[in-house]
Amino acid sequence: MNEISPIYQNDFGIAFQWKQDKTQKTNKVQLIFRDIGLLLTPTEIQYFSKCINETLQSGKGNLCEDCKVKGECRSLLLNSPAHQITFAVSFQEVVEIKDLIKGTLFKLQLDSFFDEMGID
User: Fold this and answer.
1) Which residues of 43-59 are buried (b: 16+ CB within 10 A; e: fewer)?
2) In a 3-state reduction of DSSP, which class is residue 42?
3) Sequence-ordered list of residues with C-beta below 8 angstroms from that of 75, at least 6 positions apart, any chain
4) Cα 58 from Cα 33, distance rounded (Å)
5) Between 42-59 and 91-117, two packed helices, what is the crossing angle to 10 degrees?
6) Where exactly are the structural domains of the chain?
7) Model's pTM, two decimal places?
8) Is the dihedral of CA 54, 57, 61, 63 positive or negative?
9) How many CB atoms neighbour CB 115 within 10 A?
10) N or C: which end of the chain has fewer CB within 10 A?
């Protein structure tokens, strides 16, 4: 774990940045959840957040009333910042991904604010 700088994590996943030498500074964030890894810019993470909110709004009415797995089946489609890729997820997974994304965006914004203020 010496090669990464953790940003945010929950029980479902983690967001971090790869440590690099100062000549290769990048603002991309690695998101890992389930068996998926995404390397995204903050703008792409914000877009992903919108996709998550859309999936949550459309998914609430799509849960099967007589479902034997009670919302844990992967019946929802979650668009990603890579327009060719859509994830099949459960309602609970979308909730967990939303928390991961919200926490990541909050920490990135907080770090940016402190950088602007010159606070380490």
Assistant:
1) ebbebbbebbeebbeeb
2) helix
3) 62, 63, 64, 88, 90
4) 22
5) 150
6) 4-117
7) 0.83
8) positive
9) 10
10) C
